[in-house]
Design a protein that fits this description.
The chain is mostly helical. It is built from 21 helices and 2 strands. InterPro entries: TPR-like_helical_dom_sf (IPR011990).
């Protein structure tokens, strides 16, 4: 199929670039997220978003980002920040069948059963893409995680070949936004309430790929977005204990990466495959997958990515009780991490900071039976973790409890386990819950200790009255 001609190049947003100053895109994105928290907004800003703004691909931010930017730069208008006015962007309304394909500023609203529309019809109406972003934001702020995951689905159906409708930047952006929203929810609430609701966005993303009729630049974004979405869904399956499902989703992402020649996506798929293999008790496969990921990632010029992949290899080597190999991989990971962030770091790595480095090293020492060192690193992981990553705080606190009880400190282990149990009121992760169940089992012989008895009583109470599936607090 002959691709459609490339759209004209965007006009760079030089005003916004000047505001970034000497900060890297990743550092500036972090400052945007901090500013959002200051005013109660929630945006999943990353280096890629900043790059798209500066290139002019984003002509006008959605309402949430506009409020954050106005907070960061008081007194400045959208025009002062280098953006087009919202009215001028909205002016590119969709045209009817006689006018050709709709402008990319609008997204179709699917009916109850999304799919190709008959020729000459566009579904239930037209919604401005920026209004759509605001509707999604409200769903995430006011609704439960399950409702928000449904809202995160790309609001598009696969266009009919007869309709003449073109898959464009709006559809690619919808897939990318679904990935970001699902990741934000997972960080805050864990996988259990989300996984069942991800079939819709994933199938919609691959339906867009099958539709064809897009430009080369849109094709690259759709392949990358669909692959990243498959990885996100795979991770939700992994964290909720559905390991065969996770393996299938990661394989789908890997196939998408190979078809599109996307090295970054391929490295990500191998990275998660290594993590899954380690958790599934296949350490040799974990090592092979991590090493494959590193070979691919050498082309990407991201020391932080190579650091994470070295940690994945270290985890597999620890599972093989290869202490020397594990220590070498850990040293390599720390050396690479010390080189700092850079513009080439993938956007999905926003979770990978010093806390994650410490937590993954703690897991290695735990697998090697080095309890004192495991406790030391697990404590650092808990203390250094960004409050946004509630699930990871619960995970590292649970790992700390496991290492403490194995190291002969049942009272301290029980105290940590109580804290983790409290976090599970916000986080629904079958993986973390099973870890706490194991900790409770090991602690039962120490039940005469007051702290241990308190934890065991709380653990039994929560086991007797589990939270209904899919329920979480407000996002």
């Amino acid at each position: 199929m002959t691709p459609l001609p490339e759209p004209p190049p965007h006009r760079p947003n030089t005003a916004f670039r000047r505001l970034r100053g000497q900060l890297s895109p990743s550092e500036f994105a972090a400052s945007v997220r901090r500013a959002a928290r200051e005013i109660g907004e929630q945006v999943s800003c990353d280096a890629r978003y900043i790059g798209r703004v500066e290139s002019g691909a984003i002509r006008c931010p959605n309402y949430a980002y506009e409020r954050v930017f106005r907070h960061m730069f008081p007194g400045r208008t959208l025009n002062d920040l280098g953006f087009a006015s919202r009215e001028s962007v909205r002016g590119h309304g969709a045209r009817g069948p006689a006018g050709g394909p709709p402008a990319p500023a609008s997204l179709p609203v699917p009916g109850p059963r999304p799919g190709p529309e008959p020729s000459g019809h566009r579904g239930g109406g037209i919604v401005d893409i920026f209004e759509e972003s605001e509707l999604l934001r409200r769903a995430f702020m006011a609704g439960g995680a399950a409702a928000a995951a449904v809202a995160a689905a790309p609001r598009v159906g696969a266009p009919s070949r007869r309709s003449g409708r073109r898959v464009g930047e709006a559809e690619a952006a919808a897939v990318e936004e679904a990935v970001r929203r699902i990741r934000v929810l997972d960080d805050r609430h864990g996988a259990d309430p989300l996984y069942a609701h991800t079939a819709k966005p994933l199938s919609a993303a691959y339906a867009l790929l099958d539709a064809g009729g897009y430009s080369r630049s849109v094709a690259e974004r759709l392949f990358a977005g669909a692959g990243e979405l498959a990885i996100s869904v795979g991770w939700l399956a992994h964290d909720s204990g559905r390991l065969p499902d996770a393996r299938s989703h990661y394989a789908e992402a890997l196939a998408t990466a190979r078809v599109s020649g996307d090295a970054a996506l391929e490295a990500h798929a191998f990275c998660n495959t290594a993590f899954l293999a380690r958790d599934a008790g296949r350490p040799r496969e974990a090592v092979r997958a991590a090493q494959a990921a590193q070979r691919v990632a050498e082309r990407l010029a991201s020391p932080r990515l190579l650091s994470l992949l070295a940690l994945r290899e270290a985890g597999g080597l620890a599972g093989l009780t290869d202490r020397g190999g594990c220590e070498r991989a850990l040293l390599r990971a720390r050396t690479l991490f010390g080189r700092g962030p850079c513009d080439a770091d993938p956007e999905w790595m926003s979770f990978f900071g010093e806390a994650e480095l410490e937590g993954l090293e703690a897991q290695c020492w735990s697998a090697l039976g080095e309890w004192k060192r495991a406790v030391e690193h697990a404590r650092r992981a808990v203390s250094l973790q960004n409050p946004h990553f509630t699930r990871n705080i619960a995970l590292f606190t649970t790992e700390l409890a496991t290492d403490l009880v194995a190291g002969g400190a049942p009272d301290a282990a029980a105290a940590a386990a109580v804290r983790a149990l409290g976090l599970l009121e916000q986080v629904k992760s079958s993986r973390i819950r099973r870890m706490l169940d194991d900790t409770a089992r090991i602690l039962r012989p120490y039940g005469r200790d007051e702290t241990v008895a308190d934890f065991l009583a709380r653990h039994e109470a929560t086991a007797a009255h589990p939270e209904p599936a899919g329920r979480t607090g407000p996002v």
